[in-house]
Every structure is written in structure tokens, then in C-alpha cells.
What we know:
With 650 residues, the chain is an alpha/beta fold.
Amino acid sequence: xxxxxxxxxxxxxxxxxxxxxxxxxxxxxxxxxxxxxxxxxxxxxxxxxxxxxxxxxxxxxxxxxxxxxxxxxxxxxxxxxxxxxxxxxxxxxxxxxxxxxxxxxxxxxxxxxxxxxxxxxxxxxxxxxxxxxxxxxxxxxxxxxxxxxxxxxxxxxxxxxxxxxxxxxxxxxxxxxxxxxxxxxxxxxxxxxxxxxxxxxxxxxxxxxxxxxxxxxxxxxxxxxxxxxxxxxxxxxxxxxxxxxxxxxxxxxxxxxxxxxxxxxxxxxxxxxxxxxxxxxxxxxxxxxxxxxxxxxxxxxxxxxxxxxxxxxxxxxxxxxxxxxxxxxxxxxxxxxxxxxxxxxxxxxxxxxxxxxxxxxxxxxxxxxxxxxxxxxxxxxxxxxxxxxxxxxxxxxxxxxxxxxxxxxxxxxxxxxxxxxxxxxxxxxxxxxxxxxxxxxxxxxxxxxxxxxxxxxxxxxxxxxxxxxxxxxxxxxxxxxxxxxxxxxxxxxxxxxxxxxxxxxxxxxxxxxxxxxxxxxxxxxxxxxxxxxxxxxxxxxxxxxxxxxxxxxxxxxxxxxxxxxxxxxxxxxxxxxxxxxxxxxxxxxxxxxxxxxxxxxxxxxxxxxxxxxxxxxxxxxxxxxxxxxxxxxxxxxxxxxxxxxxxxxx
Length: 650
């Protein structure tokens, strides 16, 4: 009897242990699987989720009623068929990142139309330089859909995938003239310099760098070429299917909780920081990396300034990006709650995760593609790649302490990170990576095969983030060039959002005014006075409306038409809003108020949508009171000793 009891007890214990083991395995599988997104957006119960859409303030998420009448309309206003006889073929090599590629392609199509030439699908050098990336997607098709590009522009330009075989062989033997374009050229340049060569040799090659090919502002007689640029950028240049599908999944995940989301692009790119002289805003090795790139730009003639400039003065002038901590304070002053979902866009954030710590402390739902996608989803986007060659250069041998000290003594006055204290040697991981060379040599080495592959991958990450940013309920740029330099990532997003839905909430912050406001706070950074918050809120709300729209247009349009594709690529539904007073830029070109009246089919569609929205809003709860979003009076009167400031290094 006793023996049978022991058997039953052992069996019960075994069953209990099996159940516990099964639960543990299920729990581990839930958090460790590579195919499951691990990050879950935090949602509190301050508002019922079902009513969240009704309670959100229009001042935070839009639409901007003053811009509601502007509608996208890039169709030709007059018929102009593709000429039957072509002057020849134009092929192009495009150097640069995502933003420069997109701008260059739009200019290239307009130039092909101007010269009555057949355009060969342009070559994207950033992907061709990398050996062994997916054989399924090459050059142009690495980002964009080739078939859509050709079909959408069939009424404008004849586009082919490659040169005929006989011309392709002649191109390999460099029998055709090649023209290098380092800056924007006028239409007369292409008519005068390029067209004769095209007619003579039947093939001309263009090498485009810095994202510039055709000048931004064209004469009024060439308004159809401006609309052609819009059709290229906003209709023909569609991402390949895999990018669009993953982008749609990201948008669904961001909105799964029933909340809107804000996209934020920091603009902290090494080239941008070097071009505008913002090196001293960073510390130690980052400052030196920026200065090295600035020196390269001066040697190449891209930049015509001194190497060393006053970064603080540049910051006060609005020439440098807003730091993530400053953006967090701006969003908090605007009234965005701490659980706001913020999507971090851009493949490069110079300075890494360290500078994002203050923003993440203020907004815990700061997410990016890596936290919303599984590794398998990102791998499928890249596609199968060949393994890197085994004969890759090996890192230099580890140097002894004596050798390091001798090299330090011979380094001279060149600014370097301070040498390590005796008890703290350099670790090997500090010498590895894309910046590791700076502790070993004075010259940046050529990119390795892995570096080239990562640069190609950045095109995919930028394309994915671009898609998510366009669909965002609100967009906040940490930096855009404001007409100083090449077309940039944030500027293209702002232009695309402006074309697609002008009334969408897109902030256009005046960085100079913002820096001046921050300068008045001193020790009250995290607990600003009430009048400061009201002033800042008024400034940023204006930037999202007509005032910011016009001010930004005067700066952006002279250098990048795609950053402000209005009024040429829009129409005004005048039955929805009164006529606007025309606004012109420094060139005398209209930037607002000169739009054509929308055709009747657009007006009818808007009237139907407006009626449906009115029916849906009948049962909505009233909007949040602005005063409820203001900071408590007690916060405004706190002393500097009570400021709960956060140390980013903690």
C-alpha cells in the first residue's frame, strides 16, 4: 500500500513539473523568437482606446484648415505627346544617398524630355559598388519598381531598361561622350552643350553627384516640366513591392492601439554636420570625425569655407540640427503626452543611441524599424546575398602600450581624444567599426566590402522610413537644409507630404527662433515658465500653417523644387475656402496663392468626402481644451533647485 502511494506521488510531481516546464517554454518562445516583434507600444488607460481618435486635439494631429483647399494635381494642363523621332539615348550614373538619388532621377526625366531623348534606366552607384548584394534586385530595382516607372511616364518620356546591344558594346569601349554634373545646370546649358553631342553620337552619358542636375526654378514657359518632376517623384517613383508591403505592416503596427503616431527625422548625418560646421556640438571622437569629413569637402570644392568655424554661432544662426533632447522639450511644450508614439526615421543618427537617451526618457514609445520588425522581415527585404570574400583585409596587429605612447608623442597638435589613464587601456572593440581608424591613423581608409554593403542597405532603410514618414499623422524634422546645400531627406518628406495632403500636420520649425527661446531658459529647461511655453507653442503652430508654409517655400524652392512643389503641382478648391493672397519668393515666383482652380471631378470627390466626415463627427466628444494641455502653474513657479533634470550619461 505504501509502495503504491509513493508511485502516485511521484506521478503527480512529474505531471506538475511537466506543466511548469511547458509554461516556461511557451513564455521563452514568446520573447525569444526571431519572427515575433518583441517591442509592444505602451498604452495606458488614461483615455479609453475606443474614444482615443475622438479625443485627440486637432492642434496636435491636424488637419490644418487653412491649407485644406490645396489638392494634388500634377496632370498636364495641355496636351504634349512624346515625339516619335528621338535624338538619341541618355544613360546616367547617380552618386549619393537616398535623397540625392530621388532628386536626381526627377531632374533626369525632365532633361530627357527637354532634349527629346530616350532615357535608359539610371544606374544607382551606391548599390552597384557593393559586391554580392541580392542578385534579384540590381541598381534601380534595388529601391524602385522599374515597370511602374516605365509605364507611369509612357506619355512623357520613352524609357528603356538598357541600351541596344551594339551601343552597349560601344559604351564599354568608352566611345560616347560623358558629362559630369556637380551642380545644377540651366535648361540652356543642356540645349547648348549636351544636345549637339547627343545628335552627333546618338548616346550621351551623365554623371550626377550632390543630387543636382537641373536647376530648381525654371522659367514660367517651362511650367509643364515642373509638373513632370511631380509626376516622377510622387507617382512614377514607387518603391518595389517588398518595401511597400513592409512599410504598410509598420504603419498598421504603429496604429494598432488606435492612436496616431508622429514621425521624427533627427537630421544628424555626418555629411550634413560637416557641411554646416556643427562639429563642436559633439564630443571627443565625433568632433574629429566631422572635421575630417569637412576637410574632405573643402579639398573637393564642395564647400568653400574655413575648416574651423564657431559651431555655437552656427547653432544660434539656425544652421545646425536640433538635438533630440530639444525636440523632446518642444513636443512636450506643444502638448504631446508622454505616451505619444514617435517613429524615428533615417538610416543614420550620428552619435548613436547615446544622444537619444533624453528624448527616450521623455517619450517611452520612441520606436524605429528595428524594434517594430523581426530579423526575418528585414532579411527578406534585403534578399539573399553572397558571402563576403575570404581574402578581406585583416585588422592591424594589436600594438603594445609603449608603441601607443610613442605614436601619441609624435601626433603633434592635431586634436585627438585624451589618452587613457594608466589603469584604463584601449579595448579592442574601441578600435573596430567604421570609426576605429581614428585612433590608429590620420587618413580614413577606403570602405571595406562590409562598409559598402552596409551603405547599400541604408538605401533600403531610408526608403522604408520615407514610406512610414509620408503616412504619419504628424512629422517633425530635426533639420532641413533651408536652401543651404543639396536637397535633403527631411525636405523631400515635407515636399511629398505637402503634395499628397497639404493640410497634414507637418511642422516647419524656425531653428534660429527656437534656439533664441532656449537661450532665455537657463536653469529652467525642464520646467519652463508658462509664457515661454505659450510663445513656443504659438511659434510651432504657425510653422505648420500658412505662415510656416510660405516662409519655408522662400528658402527651399530655389534649391529643391521637390521640397516645395507648389503652386505648379496643385490646385485650389476655391469653393471650400476663400481666395488666398499671392505670395512670391525672392525670384518673383509664386509660392502660394497662384494655384489653378481644381477641375470639377476633384471638387465632387471632396464634397462627398466632406459629407461623410461630417456624418461621422456628429457623435464625437468635444476637443480637449487648450488650457488643459498647459503645464500646471506649480511647474512654472518651481525654482531651479527643484528642476528634475536628467543626466544623459546616467
